[in-house]
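Q: Got a minute? One more chain.
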Amino acid sequence: MPKTILITGPESSGKSTLAQYLSKAFNFDCINEYAREYLESAGHIYTQDDILSIAKGHFLLINQLPETSFFILDTYLLNLKIWSNYKYGYCHHWINEQLQKFKPAITFLLKPNIPWVEDPLRESPFERQIIFKIYEKELTELKWPYYIIDAQLIERNSQAEHILKEFLDLKLK
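A: Always. Here it is, folded:
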């Protein structure tokens, strides 16, 4: 497993924007949100079975990366677990098992305190704060190191960049 910098959080909280920004700022490869690629190619309607297919596709993609360098990860299995539980009341055991084995170097949890951006793949504009609390609970239970990114729009980039720079400086000492 490569050294991952995970960007996670509820829908329309700026994950992809921040992932791309950090990728450029630190010259790290960015692995885009696999669920978006899957759903855009397969159609926007999905079932619970699709969530497992998305999880396995994302897992395979990540596990082909070299272990020696850092990567920015625009969402991962945690997003799928939370969404599956929230939407269907169930998450496939395979996703839970993989999450127990995964440990990102650092995680940025994005607070949904920025305006909602309409998108055909997004479903829950009024439930983002509830879902954010679920993310906090899950990250705490997984014992993953995480930072909440709660600045407004462009300041989010600076907030995350500062934290990541300090983190990397510590890692390189």
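A: The chain has one domain: 3-172.
Q: Perfect, thanks.
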